[in-house]
Amino acid sequence: MEAVKSLFLCPSALSFSSPPPSHILKPPNTCILCSITPDPWTLSDGNVNKPKPKSKNPKKPLSDDNARRIIKSKAKYLSALRRNQGSHAQTPKWIRRSPEQMVRYLEDDRNGHLYGRHVVAAIRIVRSLSQRAEGSYDMRDVMGSFVTKLSFREMCVVLKEQKGWRQVRDFFAWMKLQLSYHPSVIVYTIVLRTYGQVGKIKLAEQTFLEMLDAGCEPDEIACGTMLCAYARWGHHKAMLSFYSAMQERGVILSVVVYNFMLSSLQKKSLHGSVIQIWGDMSNKAVAPNHFTFTVVICSQVKEGLLEEAFKTFNQMKSLNFVPEEVTYSLLISSSLKAGKQDEALRLYEGMRSQGIVPSNFTCASLLTIYYKNGYYSDALSLFSEMEKNKIPADEVIYGLLIRIYGKLGLSEDAQRTFEEIEQLHLLSDEKTYLAMAQVHLSSGDYAKALNLMELMRSRNILFSRFAYIIFLKCYVMIGDLGSAEATYQSLSKIAHPDAGVCSDMLNMYLRLGLLEKAKDFIVQIRKDNIQYNEELCRLFMKVYSKEGMLREAEQLIEEMNTSQSFQNSSFIQTISMGMRAKGRRIEKEEGNVVALELPDRNALECLLSLYLASDNKIKIEETLTWLLDTAGGLSLMNQLIRKFIQDGDISKAEILYDQLIKLDSRPTDATCASMITMYGNQQKLDRAKEIFANFSHSSSAGTQMYKSMIVTCAKCGETVEAYRLYKEATSKKVYLSAVTISILVNTFIQYGKYQEAENVIHHSFGDNSELDTVAYNTFIKAMLEAGKLHFAANIYDRMLFAGIPPSIQTYSTMISLYGRQRNIDKAVEMFNMACKMGVALDEIVYANLISIYGKAGKNHEASQLFEKMQKEGIKPGKVSYNVMINVYAAAGLCLKAEQLFQAMQKDGFPPDSMTYLALVRAYTESLKFKEAEETIISMQKDGILPSCSHFNQLMWAFLRAGLIGEAERVFSKMLAAGLSPDLACYRTMLRGYMDYKRVGEGITFFERINETVEPDSFIMSAAVHLYKSEGKDPQADGVLNSMNNQGIPFLSNLEIGAKRPVM
User: Fold this and answer.
1) Residue 585, SS3 per DSSP
2) N or C: which terminus of the chain carries fewer CB neighbours within 10 A?
3) Which residues have a Cβ under 8 Å from the Cβ of 843 and sit 6 or more positions away?
4) Is the CB of residue 1061 less than 8 Å from the CB of residue 962?
């Protein structure tokens, strides 16, 4: 190469002053029959508009002799020529000839072909040598018959038409021996082109040197051919050296050669050389084409010259070149990396205006922009466009789509996209797994995230540092301590854990209450010199505050104060100022006083918790004094007290509250209310009353304190005090919420204060209080339990008139209300209304209506409703099973009751006391006394203690059948079971003695229970009748006087001997 360069630049080598050799004969003046366009003797420079030189000897006009025949023959020739040589055929142009010339043209050996027969034969013979081994032939022998027959031009044609470089080399050597040969840059260019095409660079260089030795001046075609050869085979150093030599000679290349060089350099990532050559092109005013701009823009981007790339891009558009999609894509991705997202979006809009369909790489870049900026709707629109234009989405695009769905909270759509990736066999990248795992973590599906990470590991996908972090977060969120610690150790082996990972571990230790592990972990973090962030410092302080580690906390804050990264941290500065607080001043540190507009609440919480845990009362008072002296300090203090109450730190809240009172500061109404509620939950009514009494008389006392105090009294069972506070609040026009009123009414009902409950309800309606659905439901249920059914129905009507939507509890309560009124039609109407309103009915609603049907004796309707409930997809529970068994029992359908009892157990609902009571009733109604008694024994074996109701049901059945002895046996058995008979059992036995005229036994039974039983109208009236029947009037009068003294009414319509005993 150096030889080529030196000879190329040497002036003596380029001197052509000597005349051409004398043995080269001047070709005779013969008429040229045809020419070729473009000229086959020169390399194309791409300039198809080069003007044709004017002929010095204009030809005579063609006569019309045989003109038509000549035209038709020429057309036939052109057709055959195009068919044989393809789309790039070089077709001859029309030439004006005389009739005599045309006759000779048609009669010569060409016969209308491009070359003469001897030329074609020479081409064929030389080509055939390619099948023979090198050295097995002598070109002089082969071409012996063509000596003196081929002109220089025809030899050039033969040389140009060769396919193999050996034939070119050998034929060129033979050419130089012919008399008609003379050195020409054209023939050397043909040889250079052939050598360059097959990569024979050394031969090409030797030929170039030979051309210089022969005195031929290399033109731009020859130089361009040499440069293209270097470029084609990657000889970039030689190419650039030759190019620099050519520049010094002032040779201007065509744009095609420049493109060849630029493309070759870019393929080897020599972008600096590309940019340098581009500058040369601009300086020499070489007009670039579309391909030039595409290559140069790419290299400028690769070199980081984004501004220059955009200038070139704008220049390209100014010359009306339409950039390709790859150019737009490259600029968009580069703009994204440079943070110029608006520029990237502008490029995309320009791309769309040109009608260019983006590639999946461009779409991935745009989706990244949309994702980072939160333009999620635009991202989804772009994805729809991709589907419309049938742009195949790769794994990167699907991964971005999963992330976007995750940001939008559409975890199900993200999961479907992930499954689609797997079905398309595109799932291979770790990032896709991690994106889906992060979506699961964000939606709280920690188990799914962990399973996905396990799947990723099972497929032998290598874990990166970020993958281990996600794996660790999964274990932290599900609380798997052992796995989390093992994952942390694995992460530590491949990379240094960062502050975020350490924060996750500390959060887990704190959540699990493992403070010792948390302290050890902090020691390890400090030992490993892990870079802190504010979140990690907060966790450190949280651990120190819980354990009262004052010295460690002070060391940490002192260390943080020396770090520049925490100078603007409100958290660190607040703790630092609090630690240096001395009453209403702050100690100076290094001559500077730290100024802070508003202390950080979390920092104050940590600091006060630290002093509380270490029982440092002096520092607590100093800190609070300093805090109250700052702007907004009192508000922060109240917030902290409420925060401690919410977190359940009762002792901390009490200490701060007491300190606040001690410092003559008044807590806010919300703080007082929180304290009252806290004491109410602890059943410390006296403390709550003390706080209320201290501040209830101030002008600022308002709604929150009254609401909290009323609710606290209600929770503690102080209904009288609660009612007094309610009346006091309403007299002061204090607004009480619907929740407070509901709790108050519900408490009155629980303690049997029906009148007070009704008064509150009336007053709420009178004051037009804002009531919600829950409040109305409470009112209806309260009046239902109070037995005021008409008022309860009116409350429901008022609820509808006020536009308050009923809930399922409303319909259930109203069905029960109409059941109590024995208004089955209304109950069914209410049930149907609930169905029409689209309210999702539950088991309770169905059970209420089934019970109403059962009480009305409509067991068939009840059975149908029970089946309908199951068809609606509502699985019967214990409540509905008990109700339905009781319906069958009332109807005496013991077989159906037994079947339902078995079905209930099969469905996994163990029978309870109510279930057995219904089954006993079913047997007694069917007079199956033995089965009824066995049922009571069976429930005892199952560990369920029978109640008096179970025995009373059996006793009543025996007495109805006249089996008094059996009833007495069951009564004795009940006493043996350790049960104390209730009034119903006593009434049942006395009723039996009276009905079957067992007077003596009845009197004995009464005298035995008289001292223990509560005064009852039926029992005492029955005793009076039994005494009189036996003639014991004094005893009868004594019982009657006792009834009169206690205000118990006497039942005079009782009859002795109403039934006959069974014989």
Assistant:
1) strand
2) C
3) 869, 874, 875, 876, 877, 879, 880
4) yes
